[in-house]
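Supplementary notes for students who missed Thursday's class. We covered one full example, reproduced here. Read the sequence, then the structure, then the short commentary at the end.
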Amino acid sequence: MYLSAQKLQWNHVKSLYTSILLLICFSSSASELELLTEDFPPYNFIDQDKIVGINTDILSSTCNIADIKCKFRLMPWNRAYKAAYSTRNKGIFSTSRTAERENSFFWVGPLVSSNACFYRLRDRIDIVASTADSLKKFTVGIPRGDIYESVLQKMGFQEEKNYLTYSKKHDDTKMFKHRKLDLIIGSSLTLASQLSAVGLKPEDVVPVFELDDESLVGNYLALSKETPSVMVTKLQNALDLLKINGEIESIVTRYAGMTEISGDPLPIHLERCVNGKANY
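Structure (token representation):
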């Protein structure tokens, strides 16, 4: 009788010990995130074997404040998106928060973005567009699967007629440089690196038209719906704190040298297309 009671007690201790170990393991894994993104300067890119950039630095600080261990990883956009959608404790960042994506993720943000615009080569003075419809007389290139494709379609653009898609990064900008496309889409924060990849400089282009679409307002961190909601809340609170204390502005300034676009004075409605205007 005594041995039986002792055995029961020992079994209870073992069960309790196992539960504690499982809880510790769960808590440890639940407090770690893998945040995925693509090479997209100055928001996220590799510098001396380290992932850096405006939004990378913001999220690194956000994770530190929230006391969450975050690992950053660059990969092709479609692979990153699928992994973030389907895998617990993964996220993808510097992504647009659209109505189609809204219920597929938990969202933290907005991070930093800038106004998207159409640009032409400076000497292409034949390209003039004052309305969205007038843009359809010209051709533009975009990366395949990019958010801009759905925006262009809503504007009435047709693939192979008004716009072409490219699977390799910067192929659209190469075609633009060689005058096989009339326009490219970029922003004041991304244009300098976008152009430098093909040997162009910001002063080689001129903004033509600003894109105005709600799906382009803000870059976000999109987290898998299997991520614990408490982590999402902690990250959002930490990000809000960074905005209050001015740290985001200092991070943007750190990369400002990559974003400045010089040239002749522009009409007021195109000023947001130049000189690193940051939204957050």
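Commentary. The chain has nine helices and twelve strands. The longest strand covers residues 32-37. If anything here is unclear, bring it to office hours.
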